């Protein structure tokens, strides 16, 4: 199967929202993703296979930093390289846009995601208490140097 990676377009919003619903408990709304298509700070990559969105990742560019908003891959495509390819495309896009660092928050109990970011040269830099709700802290992670 061939997976295509490209920038998100307005027509992708329903598919991105479907992936969001399948992957996250603190979901964004479909309108939130639609707004991202018009947000000048926003950069989203979609992974598409056989005409269907199977994953996506996005970041907001704030001056020379990229703040990852979310990365998701539907369960059937996890551990196949799709998430890594989305990350690679995001890193390339951020570098292309002049970013020198990338940051994110991840749930402190989401060890698979933390491991993924560690593998991608992110380091733990802090914690946001109750960021995802009472008792659900976020780990702040950074990657300096995007090459």
TrEMBL record:
Predominant cellular place of this UniProt entry's protein: cytoplasm
Keyword Transferase: yes
EC code(s) of this entry: 2.3.1.266
Official protein name in the record: [Ribosomal protein bS18]-alanine N-acetyltransferase
Reaction it catalyzes: N-terminal L-alanyl-[ribosomal protein bS18] + acetyl-CoA = N-terminal N(alpha)-acetyl-L-alanyl-[ribosomal protein bS18] + CoA + H(+)
InterPro entries per record: AcTrfase_RimI/Ard1 (IPR006464), Acyl_CoA_acyltransferase (IPR016181), GNAT_dom (IPR000182), YpeA/RimI_acetyltransf (IPR050680)
Cellular compartments annotated: Cytoplasm
Similarity comment: Belongs to the acetyltransferase family. RimI subfamily.
């Amino acid at each position: 199967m061939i997976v295509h990676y490209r920038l998100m377009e307005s027509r992708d919003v329903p598919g991105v929202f479907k992936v969001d619903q399948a992957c996250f408990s603190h979901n964004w709304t479909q309108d939130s993703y639609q707004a991202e298509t018009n947000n000048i700070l926003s950069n989203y990559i979609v992974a598409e296979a056989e005409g269907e969105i199977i994953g996506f990742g996005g970041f907001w560019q704030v001056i020379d930093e990229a703040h990852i908003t979310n990365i998701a891959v539907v369960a059937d495509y996890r551990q196949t390289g799709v998430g890594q390819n989305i990350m690679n495309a995001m890193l390339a896009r951020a570098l292309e846009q002049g970013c020198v660092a990338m940051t994110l928050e991840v749930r402190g109990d989401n060890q698979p995601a933390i491991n993924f970011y560690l593998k991608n040269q992110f380091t733990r830099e802090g914690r946001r208490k109750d960021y995802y709700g009472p008792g659900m802290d976020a780990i702040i992670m950074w990657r300096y140097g995007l090459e």
